[in-house]
Write a structure and sequence with these properties.
The chain is an alpha/beta fold and about 190 residues long. It has a single domain, classed as Rossmann fold. About 35% of the residues lie in helices and about 20% in strands. The chain contains eight helices and seven strands; from the N terminus they run E-H-E-H-H-E-H-H-E-H-H-E-E-E-H. Strands 2-1-3-4-5 form a five-stranded parallel sheet, sandwiched between helices. The protein has a two-stranded antiparallel sheet with strand order 6-7. Helix 1 crosses helix 8 and helix 4 crosses helix 7. The protein is globular. It binds flavin mononucleotide (FMN).
Length: about 190
Amino acid sequence: MADRPHIVIGVCGSIAAFKIAVLHKYLRDHAEVTVAMTPSATQFVGPQTFLALTGNPVITSLWEPTHSKPKHIDLADELDLLLIAPATANILAKAAHGIADEPVSTLIMSSLPDEKPIVFAPAMNTRMWKNPATVENVKTLRERGYHFIAPESGDLACGWQGEGRLAEPQVIAKQVFALLGLDDVKVTG
Ligand SMILES: Cc1cc2nc3c(=O)[nH]c(=O)nc-3n(C[C@H](O)[C@H](O)[C@H](O)COP(=O)(O)O)c2cc1C
């Protein structure tokens, strides 16, 4: 690993996507950050926000003809940790079933959980989180060696109260640094 680990964040289509801008504040002093987005994620936060924050190009399409090698393969080679946050019910289902049809799912498929940590921080409505399909997908992914940062209970953007709120950015940052072996990093904004 280089002095500064390279963290790639795959952002998915959830209202909690804006929290990744806050999360970046906790990561930036100790890591290089690149963001990839699903098409749905771009409905919630503009790629320009992540470009400005990270200083790195944001991957929003598999089809930008700017690289001789596919960008997702380069990134999968370079990254030290892949964080999927917020992880939707949809991306968990795709990861569990090997679907790779946009930048984030393709990055997941191009990375192996026994080579580098791949971490999901889910965020979704309580019913989506407790849906037997999601429960089964999470179980499958855990068994394959993927890491999870559990969602919290509380007020959800959809008006519900219950389990499914994205873990606080500081909590995510702490766990990410721990998985990189950087337990002594102080997570302050
Ligand atoms: C306003 C709004 C908020 C949403 N929030 C979530 C969410 O927090 N978690 C989730 O799993 N899906 C959420 N969805 C549904 C996803 O955006 C939808 O399933 C989408 O297909 C996910 O695509 P992606 O996984 O490729 O990002 C939301 C949809 C809308 C319209």
